[in-house]
Amino acid sequence: MTKNTHDADVAFIRALAELLNENDLTELQVKRDYAEDDSLNVRVSRKPPQQVMAAPAQMAAPAAPAAIAAPVAATPASASEGAADPASHPGAVTSPMVGTVYMQGEPGAPAFITVGATVAEGDTLLIVEAMKTMNHIPAPRAGKIARIMVGDGDAVEFGAPLVIIE
């Protein structure tokens, strides 16, 4: 290839990158044929912006083992409770991030909460692991655990209801 062809290719690639940004695309691929055995195959891509959510920095101590003697009972939503979204319940605690739920601080340890247990504001309800970081999810207010919407090891999405406190 000549210098002019190279300069034209660079300009072509820059134009593709501009198209990528202007149209909010994540990837663009083009093949340009010059001759029978001369072509340019270009793939321009970028990572979509990631939403980063800061995890609560508060680390509360687990509740006393005597208060948490019963096994965790995850209560799935039943059809008789209506089609209301549990995340819209006034006492719902939703996941602040995508991750994996852990109901206890370590394997074999008692669970942080059970249905019917009373929690104080700031008590750890459960842990959501995201990117190998254990994020303690604190109780936003004091109350009684009415429902546990997730189980140990469940994957959760951002905004998914975890627990309902009444």
From TrEMBL:
GO MF terms, alphabetically ordered: acetyl-CoA carboxylase activity
Annotated Lipoyl-binding domain residues: 90-166
GO terms for cellular component: acetyl-CoA carboxylase complex
Ranges in coiled-coil conformation: none
GO biological process: fatty acid biosynthetic process
Keywords: Biotin, Fatty acid biosynthesis, Fatty acid metabolism, Lipid biosynthesis, Lipid metabolism
This protein's pathway: Lipid metabolism; fatty acid biosynthesis
Annotated Pfam families: Biotin_lipoyl (PF00364)
InterPro entries found in the cross-reference section: AcCoA_biotinCC, Biotin_BS, Biotin_Carboxyl_Carrier/Decarb, Biotin_lipoyl, Single_hybrid_motif
Stretch forming the signal peptide: none
Purpose of the protein: This protein is a component of the acetyl coenzyme A carboxylase complex; first, biotin carboxylase catalyzes the carboxylation of the carrier protein and then the transcarboxylase transfers the carboxyl group to form malonyl-CoA.
Protein name, per record: Biotin carboxyl carrier protein of acetyl-CoA carboxylase
Natural source organism: Sulfitobacter noctilucicola
Lineage: Bacteria, Pseudomonadati, Pseudomonadota, Alphaproteobacteria, Rhodobacterales
